[in-house]
Design a protein that fits this description.
alpha/beta, Cobalt-precorrin-4 Transmethylase, domain 1, Methyltransferase, Cobalt-precorrin-4 Transmethylase, Domain 2, Rossmann fold, seven-stranded mixed β-sheet, five-stranded parallel β-sheet, 11 helices, 19 strands, 24% helix
Length: 395
């Protein structure tokens, strides 16, 4: 027999849902959901879901869930176990939150931290101007706020949506360390321009502009303000980006960032980015370059490796400046990928050995690119750029 999944949002049940519920032999759901179950049907309180599924097969069964059960909900799990449920959805918690705010949400990235790695959700919050997070025990507003230390963010916390205790609270991320309902929905907003009542730019793709960005990547060198040619060249940047693999849900460190060209490009590809640079004039350039490309790069002014202490754990690290001590600190940070560019030949063997000893599988390439340069009369010649060796380590 078919399992019927009914979504609940605090409103009255539609006729089809009420009929399925009245005729059910067995009804499964959370304790708060089972309060609407009629007498006479067997009730199963869902904790771990898999043990309950065997009691549903071959019976007139109803599963009660919050909101839209096809949106980060139980429908996927049922289909993974071979069921073909009839789904009667209600308004999802994300829909309900934005309806309460009276804000459109087609610009908002939606991620789930419920039973999942919180780091990935937080990295999207670090990278995006507006992110909605479905939370869970141990991955709630307090934990999200703590992880966003250093990123200016406003949180709108929606608790018990559709219930008598419904509450929406707007709080600075740094002040979110309190007790919240364990199944809250959190709207994380880049402060202050993207506040709860902001009118987002008109778009065409839900969640904001799709990736990769318009204009591609490995942008021309003159797309970045830099100090006298101190910018990672486009040809080098193309290989570095390929090896860093920036994408939504990841955090990239750009160490010895200079102009920040690598970090800005990683941010354009969806990563959260931390740029570490010792020169105040270059830190200002990084911020200007990020703003010019409409992305956010958190800039840490300081001298590596000391400046790396206490930073959030990265998924990938690019070392564009500094000595072997900086590379050693980057390799010890726990990243899945470490990429380093080297102009000095005598450092190549040392850097490779260092990465191998840190547990990475190491590969590399030397790039020697020649670019078109003008000649009199409109002709062109090939002008060589300085050779650069790129090493990358992967775990």
């Amino acid at each position: 027999m078919t399992i019927t999944v009914i979504g609940l949002d605090g409103g009255p049940l539609p006729p089809a849902a009420a009929e399925a519920l009245a005729g059910a032999e067995v009804i499964a759901g959370g304790r708060r959901h089972l309060a609407i179950a009629p007498a006479g049907a067997e009730q199963i309180v869902l904790g771990p879901v898999e043990p309950a599924l065997g009691k549903l097969a071959g019976r007139r069964a109803v599963v009660l869930a919050s909101g839209d059960p096809g949106f980060f909900g139980i429908v996927r799990l049922l289909r993974e176990h071979g069921h073909e449920p009839v789904v009667l959805p209600a308004v999802s918690s994300v829909q309900a939150m934005f309806a309460r705010l009276g804000r459109s949400w087609d610009d908002v990235a939606v991620v789930s931290a419920h039973g999942r790695d919180l780091r990935r959700a937080v990295n999207v919050c670090r990278a995006r101007a507006a992110t909605a997070v479905l939370t869970g025990p141990g991955a709630g507003p307090a934990e999200i706020g703590a992880a966003l230390h250093g990123w200016p963010r406003t949180l709108v916390v929606a608790e018990q949506l559709g219930a008598a205790g419904e509450r929406l609270t707007t709080v600075d991320a740094s002040a979110a360390g309190r007790d919240w309902d364990p199944l809250s929905v959190v709207l994380c907003l880049r402060a202050p321009a993207f506040g709860p009542l902001a009118v987002p730019p008109r778009g065409w793709c839900a969640g904001g502009e799709p990736l990769p960005p318009a204009g591609g990547w490995a942008l021309p060198d003159d797309a970045f303000e830099h100090r006298g040619g101190m910018v990672t060249k486009a040809e080098v940047r193309a290989v570095v980006l390929a090896r860093l693999a920036p994408r939504p849900g990841t955090l990239v460190w750009d160490v010895g960032a200079g102009s920040g060209s690598v970090g800005v490009e990683c941010a354009r590809l969806g990563s959260a980015v931390l740029a570490v640079e010792r020169r105040p004039d270059d830190t200002a350039r990084i911020a200007a370059n990020a703003a010019a490309h409409d992305v956010e790069v958190r800039v840490v002014e300081g001298v590596a490796p000391g400046a790396l202490v206490g930073l959030p754990t990265p998924d990938a690290v690019f070392v564009g400046g500094g000595g072997l001590d900086v590379l050693a600190a980057a390799a010890a940070a726990g990243a899945e990928r470490v990429v380093v560019s080297l102009a000095a030949l005598d450092r190549i063997g040392q850097a490779r050995t260092l990465l191998v000893e840190a547990g990475y599988e190491v590969d590399g390439v030397q790039l020697a690119a020649s670019r078109f340069a003008p000649l009199p009369g409109g002709a062109v010649r090939l002008a060589a750029t300085n050779p650069i060796t790129i090493l990358w380590g992967t775990r």
